[in-house]
Design brief:
The chain has nine helices and seven strands; from the N terminus they run E-H-E-H-H-E-H-E-H-E-H-E-H-H-H-E. The longest helix has 29 residues. The radius of gyration is 18 Å and the shape is globular. Helix content is about 45%, strand content about 15%. Strand 4, helix 5 and strand 5 form a beta-alpha-beta unit. It is α/β, with parallel strands linked by helices. It has one domain: 3-Layer(aba) Sandwich (Rossmann fold). The chain starts with 14 loop residues before the first strand and ends in a 17-residue tail after the last strand. The structure holds nicotinamide-adenine-dinucleotide. The site of nicotinamide-adenine-dinucleotide has 30 residues, from helix 1 and helix 7.
């Protein structure tokens, strides 16, 4: 799955901030923007993974990548991250709110601590970073892409906190889109279906058989690769999407096109 569909200079001179940049979708999105010419500031709470990601970057991309330790669930950390981007580059054109966690659990299986943790990383994190970044994005007439999920459009079995958090991101995206439209800031969200990343691999370990079940129930018959999500993010943040704001874009191989009723093929 290629991430090379974007012109090399599409984002030249632009500054892009990505949360959760060390792994999975965030890493692929960072590489996509770097290949398209942007300077990328990648924040992640896992400094070891972030350093590993930097080491793997080709030198030509690494010179435009700035790694910063960031905990999106802490308002001081989010503020410091955005201030550091501004101090270094004097501008911010794009914010990608990607950091997220997805622990398993129905309501009765979810402790207060786990509920708060998911809300603070997945929801507070988007709010904290967006609030800090918006003054700079307004100055740049820039854009935000939030990472929601198909899990914010419909529900999964046994992911109560995650479903609630991703649902909140969907409507926070719409709220910001209408509040900042007149300031020429566009705010959209992606709603990926299953993507082959460490987060999903963790869930495959927690729920035996989930891997095969995904492939069976996804109309395109397979899980997405992170680069396929990155391509959609680069589109939404680019001038090619100049009249798109408040959109929640499923990138899900057809998962949300299906109403859940069984296919006769499954009855034998
Ligand atoms: N993988 C999927 O199938 C899938 C599907 C839909 C949506 N998503 C969403 O995509 C986003 C990225 O997921 P991924 O699959 O690449 O996961 P991942 O676990 O591979 O990467 C997530 C990154 O976020 C970082 N992170 C976690 N908590 C953080 C915090 N408090 N502050 C800063 N960074 C933090 C992690 O260290 C990690 O590097 C998440 O928001 C996830 O909910 C993933």
């Amino acid at each position: 799955m290629s991430t090379n569909v974007w012109k090399e200079n599409l984002y030249s001179g632009r500054v892009v901030a990505v949360s959760g940049a060390a792994s999975g979708i965030g890493a692929a999105v960072s590489i996509g923007f770097l290949r398209a010419g942007a300077a990328v500031v990648g924040g992640d709470v896992n400094d070891i993974a972030l350093n590993r990601f930097v080491e793997q970057l080709p030198a030509t991309l690494r010179e435009r990548f700035v790694p910063l330790v960031l905990d999106v669930s802490r308002t001081e950390s989010a503020d410091a991250f955005v201030a550091a981007v501004h101090e270094r580059f004097g501008r911010m054109d794009v914010l990608i709110n990607n950091a997220g966690i997805a622990p398993v659990g129905s309501v009765t299986e979810t402790s207060n601590e786990l509920w708060r943790r998911v809300m603070s990383v997945d929801v507070d994190g988007v709010f904290f970073l967006a609030r800090a970044a918006l003054p700079y994005l307004i100055a740049a007439r820039g854009s935000i892409v939030n990472t929601a999920s198909v899990s914010g459009i419909g529900a999964d079995f046994n992911y109560a906190a995650y479903n609630a958090a991703k649902g909140a991101i969907v409507n926070l995206t719409r709220s910001m889109a209408i509040d900042y439209g007149k300031s020429s800031v566009r705010v959209n969200a992606i709603a990926p279906g299953p993507v082959r990343t460490p987060l999903l691999e963790d869930n495959f370990r927690a729920i035996p058989g989930l891997d095969d079940a995904f492939s069976t129930f996804i109309p395109l018959g397979r899980i997405a690769e992170p680069g396929e999500i990155a391509d959609a993010v680069l589109f939404l943040a680019s001038p090619a999407a100049s009249f798109i704001t408040g959109a929640i874009l499923p990138i899900d191989g057809g998962v949300t096109a299906w109403n859940g009723q069984p296919n006769g093929d499954f009855v034998s």
